[in-house]
Amino acid sequence: MQLAALGEFGLINRISPLFRSLIPEGVEGIGDDCAIIPISETESLVVTTDLLVEDVHFLRNVMPAYDIGWKSLAVNLSDVAAMGATPVGTFLSIGLPSDISVEWTDSFFEGLHSLSAQHNVPLLGGDTTRSPEKIVINITVVGKAPSNSIKRRSAAKLGDIVATTGFLGNSAAGLWHLLNNSPKNESTAMLIEEHFRPKPYLHEGQWLANQKGVNAMMDISDGISSDLRHILKASNLGACVEMSQLPISPILKSLANSYPWDILNFATSGGEDYCLLVTIARENFPSVASKYYEMFNHPLSAIGEIQCGPSEIEWKRNGITIELLERGFQHF
Ligand code: ADP
Ligand code: MG
């Protein structure tokens, strides 16, 4: 059987049980945005790692080295944000072809340093090796959080409001412009910037983790059509999502008629939004959302509701159930 038949998540599900008996009581491994390792009665470490491979995650001649450095860290910090944790330190393993310029590596580390400084998280170690042809980047982030405030994918409850902390689809639209080499203007440059420099919602994640009624949380890396299903599977519940409520940015809306896009497809299945997907008890949602807006000056957008039934998403447009064909990004 070829790996493509198994798929990315099929492979993860295949390896996960193999190591389960080695995991000590209280430690949580594969299955959430970070692993959780309790270190005292009250505190836990969280650990996450992500791999970026040239030509799979970025094109060297299209993406500036500075942005590659930035994004390699941002995607990891986003997983720490999803647990409601605070990053403590990072490790970088990098494979580089020997003909890469020092200007490239300087610029890569400037980007990495800039985001590290923004969140006060130092690079603590790593490994450097020659790669025959392609750049390979792996960052691991260690974070910490009070154990009782850590948020898991498995904690969604029946009747919860499903919400996101940011716009959906901008990054996918930016990628579309890059791949289609379309002429740049101010709006498309902003979308490309969002694709290159995602913003990890760390402060938002930490704040949400301490609010009453916030149940499940994860970050949106593959698109809600795939990521919300991870929450549903882990929580053993279903959800409905109302398309007309999806938070689409004014820029994306304004460009909708100028390109052969399906904006809703970008918003549901484009991926790489790196905002947070949260489920919040219905009775707490109004006060959490209004305090959130006061704190962060951008909305917490309700997009649907947790319901019973199979761990699938019921897509609705103006209350009427519709079929959605795209299913989010998967490797293989
Ligand atoms: P995320 O998008 O939040 O980084 P992934 O979808 O990449 O999460 O991974 C889902 C889960 O599977 C995570 O808990 C991750 O740690 C685990 N995982 C992914 N690949 C591997 C692997 N090769 N070995 C062990 N665990 C893995
Ligand atoms: Mg994640």
Write a brief structural summary.
This protein is of the alpha+beta class and 332 residues long.
Textual characterization of the structure:
- The protein is of the alpha+beta class and 332 residues long.
- It has helices at residues 3-20, 65-83, 102-118, 170-180, 186-196, 202-209, 224-235, 250-255, 263-270, 285-296; strands spanning 35-38, 43-53, 86-96, 123-130, 136-146, 161-164, 214-219, 238-242, 276-280, 301-307, 313-317, 320-322.
- It has a seven-stranded mixed β-sheet with strand order 7-9-6-10-8-11-12. It has a five-stranded mixed β-sheet with strand order 1-2-5-3-4, with helices on one face.
- Strand 1 (35-38) and strand 2 (43-53) form a beta hairpin.
- The model has no long low-confidence stretch (mean pLDDT 95).
- Magnesium ion (MG) binds at residues 33, 79, 82, 218-219, 221.
Topology:
Elements: H1 3-20, E1 35-38, E2 43-53, H2 65-83, E3 86-96, H3 102-118, E4 123-130, E5 136-146, E6 161-164, H4 170-180, H5 186-196, H6 202-209, E7 214-219, H7 224-235, E8 238-242, H8 250-255, H9 263-270, E9 276-280, H10 285-296, E10 301-307, E11 313-317, E12 320-322
Parallel strand pairs: 3-4, 8-11
Antiparallel strand pairs: 1-2, 2-5, 3-5, 6-9, 6-10, 7-9, 8-10, 11-12
Helix pairs in contact: 2-3, 2-6, 4-5, 4-9
The structure holds adenosine-5'-diphosphate and magnesium ion (MG).
